[in-house]
Amino acid sequence: METILEEGIQQDHASFYGELAVLKKAEGGSIPHLWQTLREVCERLTIGLREHMEREGTHVPHDHHSDFRYLQIITRFIISEDRPHLLNNRYQMLTNFIRGLHRHMDEQEAA
């Protein structure tokens, strides 16, 4: 059972890593396309992080609740503000969030 749990958590981590690649790929595209990509990544991360937290339960010491709350704030910014001069800022917020999440996951896998 523990192996299945660990495999599920590692699959979650791989999925989260993939979202950064999605953002990088969209970076050079049109402004409307990048906004749409940001929204889609936020949606997938929200669902994935919620499921990840449920999967981890009490088995893993790191608590992702603050990560989840911060993601909700970023998502609100991205959904409510479709202004080109904010695009770079919102892109950076989301990529920095994913990188921070990666650090937590790396620590978790090392433990």
Sum this structure up briefly:
The protein has 111 residues and is an all-alpha fold. It is 82% helix and 0% strand.
Largest sheet entry: none
Proportion in β-strands: under 5%
The number of E-state strands comes to: 0
What is the percent of helical residues? over 70%
Distance between the termini: 19 Å
Contiguous runs where pLDDT drops below 50 for at least 5 residues: none
Query: Helix/strand-derived class?
Result: mainly alpha
The helix/strand order is HHHH
The gyration radius over C-alpha positions equals 15 Å
Instruction: Provide a count of the helices.
Output: 4
Overall mean pLDDT stands at: 84
Shape: elongated
